[in-house]
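Allow me, if you will, to draw on your knowledge of protein folds for a short while. The matter concerns a single protein, recorded as an amino acid sequence and a row of backbone structure tokens. Kindly check, if you would, that the fold set down in the tokens agrees with what the sequence suggests. You will find the record immediately after this paragraph.
***
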Amino acid sequence: MIALAILVVSAHLVWLLLVIFGALWTRGRPLWSAAHILALLWGIVVEAGPWPCPLTLAEQYFETRAGAAAFQGSFLLHYLDAIVWPNLPDGALTIFGVSVCVLNLGIYCWRFRAFRLHRGRSR
């Protein structure tokens, strides 16, 4: 079970990195940009709303089944948890998470505006 917990926490870390840095990676990739925008909207809903993230629920389930509490679990699980869930107040994490999503959406708005301006000049 600990291996599944580590796998889910790792997947969560990859998801968070995609949400945070996705706008940099998706430049010139319209399909990936659309997927990233959906991920950003999902991130805002999960951070600001009352619903838990399914990955968080899976993490908690596997960690509980593995008997991992605090630092009694594996070394890797402990440090992945610390990266995914830093020891900050919940309000600060929510503000940071929503701000990162809004910043990324702003990048997409800027790109769309630049695209429209460029397309308008070429006509």
Summary: Residues 2-121 form one domain.
